[in-house]
Each structure stands twice: as structure tokens, then as C-alpha cells.
Amino acid sequence: MSDLLSRRLALLGERANLSLLSQCLHGIERECLRVDSDGQLALTPHPAALGSALTHPQITTDYSESLLEFITPAEPDPATTLADLEQIHRFAYSKLDGEYLWSPSMPCALPDEESIPIARYGSSHIGELKYVYRKGLALRYGKTMQCIAGIHYNFSLPEQLWQLLQQAEGDSRSERDYQSARYIGLIRNFRRYSWLLMYLFGASPALDKGFLRGRPHQLQQLDADTLYLPYATSLRMSDLGYQSEAQSGLTPCYNDLTSYTDSLRLAVGTPYPAYVEIGAKKDGEWLQLNTNILQIENEYYSNIRPKRVTHSGERPIQALMARGVQYIEVRCLDINPFLPLGIDLSEARFLDAFLLFCALEDSPLLESGECHTCTDNFLKVVKEGRRPGLQLQRQGQDVGLQAWAEELLERIQPLAELLDQSQGGDAHLQALQAQRAKVEAPDLTPSAQVLAQLQQGESFTQFALRQSKRHADYFRDRPLSSEQLAAFEATAEQSLHQQADLETYQEGDFDSFVAAYQASILAQAL
């Protein structure tokens, strides 16, 4: 353990400070496709009984009209966060008519590209903007790729904790700048070590053959309808998932917040020749929001993001620039198809210890060579993480995945113990032990368990549909109380009224609205 980490742990372990660790906040966003009883993509509109996808605080859509997204509030205890997520699922299942939530990350058998419906958000300017943005995504990356689903884990440490550390270390920066710098340091360490999460929690080693649309690939055939890689952990996070030539040159630097926001602002203001050729409009119809490398900053695909809650009408970069980093969003987690929620408390407890380790351990700046090594290690693990004897790169040297994973878990253990000390019990230590078992026995990883199921004769689609129906039974057997149901229904109804109000009382035309939205970020000179 580094001296710096030891000092920080000792400070946080003092009786007066221990309660700070029980004030971390956790939020989860879970995406999932709606499918019909045959496991085909549901082509029905977003169910009105779930409320407005534009204004509902907890139930929206991501890329496609068929791709639901459930959003929990931020809670101090991840057990509460998961309970919130479960309630949203139970409400959704009370309103889904003969449809199911697809259990894994990789999509069901998809119809042709044209038939995949882009999400609609009504006729308000902001609703139209969200729709045109998604039209741009379809144009740039295709619709198929946008049907992949994942789990995003939002995590923050209390501001008093950062202030305590800053004071102890005699750092003279403003509180905001110190906190932002420390979150960016967390992200650098996450880049170094996130391959471990893909080994432990990757759950997409196989996919439906149709997903590739006949594109060339290096996958192996498991059966007539299923492709896989024998040692893969997460094909979702491989180059088969999100890939973009335009974004390949975009490598936001995580060495400080300003360089990160500057690189994204440059990308949302720099034309990209292939997109310029297409144009933003054709015959008066919007095709994409603009012809720049990124239409908006959220188009940048990354495994982790620094975040700040935005004010009404404010863009994410503006919020970060104005008020600094408030929390981080982990975006690389697969949905575990064996779990009704796609994630469980053991995974959440381990994530907390892992992220706390990334936050408190020393985090030197990433030199360009190390940036590439981080990416290479990550991609190697998503494609062949369970390969016996797999070697990764660390400081220019080969290191075995298993040895490095064991060493990392050893370094994370004091963080798990500190969290347990803060909250009582031994849940974090138990979660850590569960991960140790997976390192010792790769067959215990979710990716290995998925393949073990498929090797018994089920196709990817058959397995996923069976799990989807099993999870549907789980939620439907546990209906909400009448009070809970009434509260969800009231929120859904209110969201529909809010959307209607936005559509009734808007000013100006859509073109002017887009121009103002664009100018809001470009006006701040680089």
C-alpha cells in the first residue's frame, strides 16, 4: 500500500470521520430492450401507461423507442438504490402488455435497420432535438449498435470528505478545483484498472448472429444462430460494440478537468468531412444536429465520465466548467442475464470498494504510452479475459492477469474493511471474497456461466428469452402495494401533463432553438 493511501485511510478511519463513508451516493441507470413473447424487438410505441419518456424522472428511452431506461435517485446505501430499481421494474411489468424486458446486454434478433424505431419525444423543441440527435446517431453509427444495453453506476463521495483530505494535505486550490482534480484522478486509476471489472462482471461472450449484419468478424460459430469467442468476457465493450472512425482521434485527456472539457468542446465545434458531405439538413428535413465530430458531448463513447447535475437548459460541459465534478458515471458494466435487475448488491458493494480505491490511491498523470496500454489491456480482457495464462502490460512489462488481479484485490481489501467499519457488518469484505473466488476459478465469472448455458444446446436468443420470461415472473409475482402503484401512476400522469405543457407553451421555431443550443457551447472561446 502506498504511503499516501495509508495516510488517507488512517484519517478516514478516525472515529470522528468514519461516518463520512456512509454518505457516499449511488445511482443506477439500467437500459433494456422491450421484446415480444417470441423474443423479437417490440415495434410498439413507448407505453403511455409508463408516462412521458421526455419528462418522467425515472422511466425514459435511450436510443430506440424499444430501448427502455430506468433511472434511480441517488441514495447513500446501494441496497436502497437497488430497491428503487426493483420498484421501477415491478411498475413497468404491471403495464407491459404481453411484452418482456430483454435480459442480456447484447440485443435480441433485430429487424432490418429501417424497421428499428428511433425514440420519439413529442413535438416540443427539446423533444425534437432529442429525436434529431438520435437520427444523427443512426446516420453515423447505424441503428443496430444503438440497441446494445448496459448498466451505468453513478458514484460520489461527500464534499466534506474531500474537504477533510484537502485540509490534511495542505492543498491550496479552491475546494471546487481540488475536488474536480481528485475525481479526475479517480478516473485515471479507473482507466488503469477497469479491465478487472470486465473480467469479474463481463456477461456478453456471445451474441445473435444477425447483429453483425454480414460484416466480417473474428467470432466463432457456436450454433446456427449464435456467435461467440471462447474466452470473451464482454463483446459489448469490444470493437464489435461502439466504434467510430470520427471518434477514434478523440482522446480526451484525463490529466485535468480543463483539458477534458476543452477536447470535448473542440469536438462539438469541429466539422467532420464525412458528416459535412451528408449535411445537417436535406430538403428542409433535419438529418443530424450538426456535421461536427460530435453532435453533442454525450455522443462521446467512454467507459467512465465525470459528471455534474445540470440546471435547466444547461449542457453537461457547461455544468462541469462552471461548478466542477460532482460524481462519476461508470458506463462499462454489462447486464448480468442471470439477475432480475442485471446487477446485485454484491456487485454494487465491490464497485464501491473498487471506486474508493481508485479515488484514494495515488494517481500519477497518464503519459501517452500508458493511455494506449490501458486501452490495450481493457480490449484484451473483453475479448479473451478468461484465456489461461493471459498476459497484460504493466509499466512496459508482461504481467499475468490472474497475478495482477489477485494483487489488486489485496490492495482493495483495506478499502472494503474501512467501508464495513463505517457501515457495520462485513458486506464489502464478503463482496471482495466473491470476486477472489472468480479470479481463482474463471468458471464462476458471469461470462463463463453464460457460455456454459449455451453449450448445453440453447441458442443465445433462446437462453436470453428464457431468462427474460423468468425475470418477468419474478417481478409479476411481487406486485407493488396499492400505494406504491398509485404513486407511480401519478408520476406517469404528471409527466404526460408536463410534456403537453412544453408543447403548448414554447416560443420560436425549431431551427432557432437548435442554433441557440449549438451556440451555448461554442460561444465559450477555446
TrEMBL record:
The molecular function terms of the Gene Ontology recorded here are: glutamate-cysteine ligase activity
Glutamate--cysteine ligase domain sequence ranges: 10-381
Describe which pathway this protein belongs to, using the record's wording. Sulfur metabolism; glutathione biosynthesis; glutathione from L-cysteine and L-glutamate: step 1/2
| Swiss-Prot/TrEMBL keywords | ATP-binding, Glutathione biosynthesis, Ligase, Nucleotide-binding
Keyword ATP-binding present in the record's keywords: the answer is: yes
Q: Which Pfam families match?
A: Glu_cys_ligase (PF04262)
Tell me what reaction this enzyme catalyses: L-cysteine + L-glutamate + ATP = gamma-L-glutamyl-L-cysteine + ADP + phosphate + H(+)
What is the E.C. number? 6.3.2.2
Q: Which domain of life is it from?
A: Bacteria
Show the SUPFAM superfamilies listed in the entry: Glutamine synthetase/guanido kinase
Stored InterPro entries: Gln_synth/guanido_kin_cat_dom (IPR014746), Glu_cys_ligase (IPR007370), Glut_cys_ligase (IPR006334)
Q: Which NCBIfam families match?
A: glu_cys_ligase
In the record, the note on similarity to other proteins reads: Belongs to the glutamate--cysteine ligase type 1 family. Type 1 subfamily.
The protein's name = Glutamate--cysteine ligase
